[in-house]
Automatic annotation (TrEMBL):
<dbReference type="GO" id="GO:0016757">
    <property type="term" value="F:glycosyltransferase activity"/>
</dbReference>
<keyword id="KW-0808">Transferase</keyword>
<dbReference type="InterPro" id="IPR001296">
    <property type="entry name" value="Glyco_trans_1"/>
</dbReference>
<protein>
    <submittedName>
        <fullName>Glycosyl transferase group 1</fullName>
    </submittedName>
</protein>
<dbReference type="Pfam" id="PF00534">
    <property type="entry name" value="Glycos_transf_1"/>
</dbReference>
<feature type="domain" description="Glycosyl transferase family 1">
    <location>
        <begin position="181"/>
        <end position="333"/>
    </location>
</feature>
<dbReference type="GO" id="GO:0009103">
    <property type="term" value="P:lipopolysaccharide biosynthetic process"/>
</dbReference>
Amino acid sequence: MKVAILSFYSGILDRGVEAFVYELSNRLVSFGYRITVYQTGPAMKGSKYKTVTVPIKVHFSSEGLLAAGINQVKDILAGREFAVKSLALIDPDTQIIIPTNNRWQGILSKFWATRHHAKMIISGHGGPGIDERIALWSFPDVFVPLSNFQRDWARAANPFLKRLIKIPNGVDVEKFSLKTKPLEIDLPRPIVLCVGAMWPWMKRQDLLIKAMGQLSSGSLLLVGDGEGKGLLQKLGNTHLKGRFKIISLPYDQMPKVYTACDVFTYPTSSWEAFGIVLLEAMASGLPVVANDDPIRREIVGDAGLFVDPTNTAAYARVLEKALNTNWGDKPRRQAAKFSWDKIAKQYDLCFHFVA
């Protein structure tokens, strides 16, 4: 079966959607699928699937909220160009098409699928919001919510959509494990880790910095990049002098980061669709302190604690509690429920259901 996947940022950025495309595609190839990924960047190291690079400029370099807004508008326009060029390159006998970045991709992919008698599947990486509503009203043959909460939201957002099949994101439990040699980090222990794009208006690392500032010991390590990096660096230097760092590493180096730390925390906004980094942290044996919302509770289960990050004092107390608790193998056991091998089998069933 031929499957085409459109992933605008693959080969350029290493985030949740890009990890989804890489990990799922590699496993589907082993099932006998002929996978082609259309992306703006070069082929990713270790990819077993066919990569077609569609050279479109990606905008993400400037600092600040205004720059982030301008870059988003530019990328919406670039996304349309990417979708048009990618769709023109897809083999007409492709049976399944998966647009991963919504908006223009979903709308134009639906036209392509209808014309070529193919099926369109959309996985809900955008989270509840305008992008997801556009995806739902493009009437994919299957919409794949990543959580029970998102499934219920999608049903209400488009009650006329026929097929919703919940499949969460996954994690490679061999790549992310306790066996990985830790990265050497020049920070006082214990170390609290947060991984994600430097977008405090969504990921809310600023709330984490303020909470960590209330603890008398322990350090904070932020890993990622983005338009808010400068702002977060200044805030960290103010609240956590000598106990704070921001670093950015290639994705294949991330397992070493997790095993070098003691607790993982993720104060992201409630409307984020998932958070693969939560699974990576738990697979590496780290307990989690997460935003208290239905999606994060479904992912983390009993392998962590939950808090409203806007309550600085409460956030600090919960971080301290997580650091002082013996979590045993709870994080690893929770992560194992989301193994990419299990997730790939669910997509295999989904494909055969609609093909």
